[in-house]
Structure formats: C-alpha cells, structure tokens
Amino acid sequence: MPSPPRRALGALAACLGAGLWLYAHVLWKLGHDWATDGNYSHGFLIIPLAAYFVWERRARLAGLPIRPSTVGLALIALSLMVMIAGTLGAELFLARVSMVGVLAGAVLFVAGWPHLRALAFPLAFLLLMIPIPAIIFNRAAFPLQLLASEFGTQLLSAAGIPVLREGNVIVLARTSLEVAEACSGIRSLISLLTLGIVLGYFSDRRSWVRTTVTLATVPIAIVTNGLRVAGTGVAAHFYGPQAAEGFLHAFSGWLMFAVAIAMVYGVQRTVVAVRA
What we know:
By secondary structure, the protein is mainly α. The chain has 12 helices and 3 strands. A hairpin with a 4-residue loop joins strand 2 (about 170) and strand 3 (about 175-180). The radius of gyration is 23 Å and the shape is elongated.
C-alpha cells in the first residue's frame, strides 16, 4: 500500500490534471493575452517563478503533517461557481482568478492548512499573471496620464521651455504632445511591481525589507515616466514633432525602464545596507 504522502501526491496530481482540463480554454486565452498585450508580457515568467517558490519550500513541505480539510472542497466548489459565472458573463478576470482558488482549495483538501499556509506566497504570486479588468485598468490609467502630463509640464517649465497643459495634452511652441494611455506609465508600473516583489523576495527574508522594495516601485514608475514625458517634450521643442515619434519614442521607453530597474535595485541595496 502506498504511504499517505504518496496518496496525497497522487490525489493532488489528479486534482491538477482535472483543473488543467477544465481551464484549458482559460489558459489558452491567458497565454494569448501575454503574447499580444505588452502590459502583461511578464506573465510568461510568473508560473515558472511560482513553481520555483514551491520547489524552494520542498523541505518544509516534506516535514508538515498531512491533514486534509473538507473546507478545501468547499473552496473548490466556490471557485468553480466563480468560473462558471465568469464564463457565462464573458468576464475573463473572474474565470482566471478562480484558477488560483481551485489550486488553493486542492492543496487544502488534499494536504491541509499547514501546507496551504506554506504555499500562500506562491499561490498569491500567481495573481500577477492575470490582467486587470478593463474598467479598473482605465480608471487607473487616466489619473496616471494626468500625473505624467503635470510632472512633465513642470519639468519643461523649470527648464525654461514655454509649455501649456490642457488635460493630458502638452502644448509646446512647435507642436503638441498627447500623453496617451500607452504613455501613462501603467505598463512599467505593473512590470516594476512584479520585479520589486521578486527582487525583495530574493534579497532578504525579512518582510519589511520585501515590502519596502515592492512599494518603492510605485513612485519610481511614476517619476521615470514623468521624466520620459519631459524628455520627449524637450526633444520635440528643439528638433520638431518627429523627435517624439517612431524609434526615438520607443527607445526612450526602454531607456527609462532600464533607469527604473536601476533605481529599484538601488533602493534594494540601500535598504539591505541600512538593515545591516
């Protein structure tokens, strides 16, 4: 007869196999969004990283008692109801979030609360692979557009360049620049947030260090995006509107994202040094 841990692993494998079959269409559409939506291209890295976090806990998991809980079955049933509601209502976010609920319920039903607590971070980390609903995305993007426009306008004015802001449109002497949704900075914010969580996790075991590094990504993303807007305005003022389009515009985005990564790393090193 197989030992209880092997039976538990077999049951967990069966649950995961059934889950993959049930969510095949959801996973396919999720992968399509990662490949086509630049805001969530980091989604391809989330599952391998989450798997590593689980593997890293293997010794701890092996030492935990197997105490299956029927609450897990209730959580699976609730998550499946959410999936059905999301599918019928054409709401992909609900169907995708329910996957994490099913995984959590499977762990709880097969292994128990100690294992669920040990795997809480990898399971929560999976939420980063799920695109934000459009209604929330748009509500977050527009204030960021206005903030980037205001920040860029102030920097241009401080540099002595005549500038006028009308909403998310920056009016210069030779041209006008519109801070569109793609330039709101929300793309870099989402990617930097993921990077901050990963960097904080690997840099230190203390929760306050990880939290500080993660939270620092928000102002860094806002500041670097404002610098990008201001830099685009300077280029358009001196060299014309063509300087704010095409390759130079795309290159400035990559350049400022690299600067943002360097700033996040600098915060991480500073926090660790202060702790030491």
